[in-house]
Fold this protein.
Amino acid sequence: MNLSALPYGSDGIARRTALKQLALACGLALSASSLSALAASFSAPTDFSRRKKTLLSSDQLQLLRELGDIIIPTTDTPGAIAAGVHDFINHYTAYCASSAEQQQLLATLGRIEAGARSEFNKAFLTLTKAQQLQLLNAMEQAQNGFSQADRKGLKQLKALVVFGYYTSEPGATQELAYLAIPGGYKGNFKLKEIGRAWALNF
């Protein structure tokens, strides 16, 4: 179940609780206060067609698409691109995120692009995979001109990608095991018998 699939209604507390549970189920590296802010920031979109409002330019959206593919690539299951994570993040930040969260995402994308041009004199999308990973690893470690603020921004971006992916249909039903109505309770399993982790049904 993706974020956009959650019902719009007057029960804001129930909705925020569901959002926090979804984020926690994904194992996001966010503090309790960050999760509360993420959940509390959601409100019904002003444009119910969900097509007109956008935060990112086409170039920024392409950059985000590439970053999503690096974070969750296609393997034997669909990756972030197939799940439309870049579109989800664009929609979420345009309609639901606070102004500060929007600016942080834009700043993070800007720092990645600026870093690519500074280090390799090329746009990030034209770098080789090895160069892209080198740049992102430096940002992850706050090295080579990247600050702790840049590191935090990348961490938040990764959390959004993971959140968008594991609450999408491909992420919840193909990457995770899923049962709409789980069977009876069994409290003792050998780890090798469990297989993939289960998507939670809220």
About this structure: The chain has a mean pLDDT of 77.
